[in-house]
Amino acid sequence: MKTRFFITKEDLYELFINQNKTREWVANFYGCSAVLIKKKCQEFGIKKPADLVGKNLERKIQKECLYCSKIFEVVNFRYSGKWEIKFCCHKCSSDYRYLGSKHKRKVLNSVAARRRANMKNALVELTEEEKDSVRNMYINCPEGYEVDHIIPISKGGKHHPDNLQYLTIQENRKKHNKCSNQ
Q1: Overall average pLDDT of the 89-114 stretch
Q2: Would you say residue 182 lies in a domain?
């Protein structure tokens, strides 16, 4: 037995033109195929006006900026998930991520120490946990202290969390490239 769908011209016009729903949405609403909706539109002579043709492709959703709380519009697929946009502009994004010049200096110190260790072949394979430990050692360094290699890299020491310690700036300058036990 063939199922028949009772779709009136007025209902189809209301959904397809006035509410600007897609053919697939209207088909799901009636529980039929999009092809049937296309045929019904042709039968009733319903055609989307030129100004509505691309509207469904660029349907925008409003979102709030995480930094300035300004409301901005994003395309549907950028609303959530992998490609989510969280900020209204580049400035808000960079300001949100910026943690201050002291933090930036500590991160740069960590990168420079790793580069110097690499130049002296003092890098060892580190697990992710050890890499985080080294990075945190530099980032959480107290004010007035520096991260020091217990056995200096120039004397064969490795850039490893077990070989790092905090020293005051004066002690570190005084130690220079000597081992801590000398």
Answers
A1: 91
A2: no
